[in-house]
Records
---
Amino acid sequence: PQYTLPLLDVLERHRVQANFFWLGNCVQRNPAVAKAVYKQGHYLGLHGYEHHNFPALTPQQLRSSLAATRTAIARACQIEPTLLRDVRPPNGLFTPQVLNTLAQEQYRVVMWSVVPEDWLNPGVEVIMERIMQQVTNGSLIVLHDGHYGGQNVTQVTDRLIPQLVKLGYQFVTIEELWQQQQGKN
């Protein structure tokens, strides 16, 4: 709550919809925060119930983790669980078995292209520099609003959005990217 709620104010001020990939246990602890994110129109995805690397889980453990996360989000936001289809694997780790399990459950895997390692708390200037060096058209930028990385997320986001807009970038949700991808096929 101490990082996400101020972040929501920044996103609202800049009129940007973000994509939130949540840990189920965080939603369980703070359902009002999850509901605030959803009510503001941000896109919701899954990150597992706890921050466990998916390859370390059995297929059943992975299914259970994602189902529990779906349930926590659906309850907090009062939405249908099946609307939650996108999954960002913790640390970006997956194996063919993980991908098969996700496909069997009709989840869509979402990765990133810009990761400034904000969870290491290198400071706002370093995070900004890393993002600006890596960003290109179609980039997915990962920032963290939790215990690790959350200290800088509001300030980084408040500075980043105007800089990227000035360069001609637009912000879209993951769903809009999926729709664009389908249109190309």
---
Amino acid sequence: MSNQEKTCWDTFSDILNAGIDRVILYGPAGTGKTYSAMHEQNDGQAFRLTCTDDMTNMDVTGGFLPSSDGGFDFIEGSAIQAWRGHRLVVDEIDKAGGDVFATLLNMTDSDGSATWQHPVTGEVHKPQEGFKVIMTTNVEVIEELPMALIDRFPVRLRIDRPHPNALMTLPSHWREYANRMADAGTERMSLRLFQSMHKLSRQMGEEEASRIILGKRADAFLQAVRIDNFQEVEQRG
């Protein structure tokens, strides 16, 4: 496969095949970044964190919760569980608050540097062999992320099109258009939009579903799909 033929998803597969264990996927929303981070070349478990302003370190490393006997038990967070040789997926890293972001920097540092002390036993834990981290973000320019994060994740890949497996869930005559519009700037249309429109179209037809979801853009969509379909038929002929 030549460089011209390779897509971002081919490159992501090559990155994982090379044994890279720290990756940031960035770019337009609704292209399958999270799904691929969870499942691509992953035979083990994947633990997911979705960053928000309200997220706390309890989600990352754990915290105490009431137990059935009236006391409190320490429940491990996703990062600690993933440290046991699994994959940690951190969604929307750009939305993490200051304290959580600092904790995530520690938990996703190189395996030789990251440590965590259990608050009950005092035991010091380190990531085990096989621990991997994939972060996702919808930022368009990677330099918008903090330098401390970029330094820890030297492998960053811009995802500019829907995952091929996700495109296969759409009608065949929509796929080229959906692929094209995923990274179309202000005219962008996410994969989630197409999936919702497809679901609605099964009930009320393609034209009405597109008008409900796309509004004024429906005519342009229907016309583009007809053109794509016509060109495909011509090429086959």
---
Amino acid sequence: WKGLIRYHVFFAIDRATRRVKIGGLVRDPDGKWMKTVIRGMLDAVDGALLGTKYLILDRDPVFTQEVYALLESGDVTVVRLPPRSPNLNAFAERFVQSTRRECLSNVVPLGEGHLRRTINAYVEHYYYEERNHQGLGNRLIEPSVAANGAGPICRRTRLGGLLSFYYREVA
């Protein structure tokens, strides 16, 4: 038993589609870990940064010169935020706020694996299949069921009922 442990999560958001990709989760991030995460996100087959032209980054010291060079080799232009300017990256700040308030404030993760599963379930629920987005005309990003139908109303839950999604069963 070690008490409370702080984890750091690296994620990327596509501003146009609101898709979120979790790049990695670690207790003590450093430049070597970040280089590994970026290399995975630049993967030619299923990398989250495929086709990305710009990546907005804050001034965290884990973004070393090697990380910038790796991103530039993948044709990604890095846009660094000015110091102490959280309002310039509103999409990321909103994601962090929503994750904390709507998910992590109601769950006590019992280890790194539990935290990973919790965050992945939250991302699947809220940023892919089951939450409409006002900025996208109240559409779902990747709907898994039809929005309207004539069947009975069903409920799908995640995280033990913490997150719920209601839909009509197709008759």
---
Amino acid sequence: MAGPVAESVRLCVTYQLLDNVLQMFESGVSLSKGMWKRLVLKAVDDRDHATWRFELSLYSRLRIYRVIVSERSNICWWRLAKHLPFLKKPCATMVRLVCGSSVLAEFKQVKFPRDQRLCKQCLSNVVEDLYHFVMHCSCFSYSRNSMFDSIRSSLSISGCILWDSLGNIMQANVIMGLEFPFSHDDIFLIRKIACISVHKM
């Protein structure tokens, strides 16, 4: 991480803790050792999270990853592959897509300006990015329609209503692993169907 930014993050944490100490002196209330430890650990965790988000912003390939993943924890595709080992390859495909290391033209043809990295599958003069590939490319219409039909028929009634209320971009984000307030069973089914379908595409 860049030196000046790292220093400013460290200063923010220090000032936050000093502010807490001053408030304790002014109010006459002191924290127990355990409460002070939790306060320091939270400040350090906040600093680490801010550092992590900043480092993600340095890489254009991680544009989708920044949208999909909000916490520093194992990505949902790793957890799904661990739970269902037969989905290891489809889950690896999803990770590659989210991290920008797939064969999509958006990332493959790095010597060309982004607006010239067009989809060679459908010849629609549209940049071949993740959203085009998953939601719009006419070459994959049959697979896409089959995926959406499977998702809708597998969801609970409330999950189906919630799914239908999402726009195209949000549906694509949920398919790629965005946490959304579906029930545990519904989000599990969406991810299972999505990773198999997108892997086949």
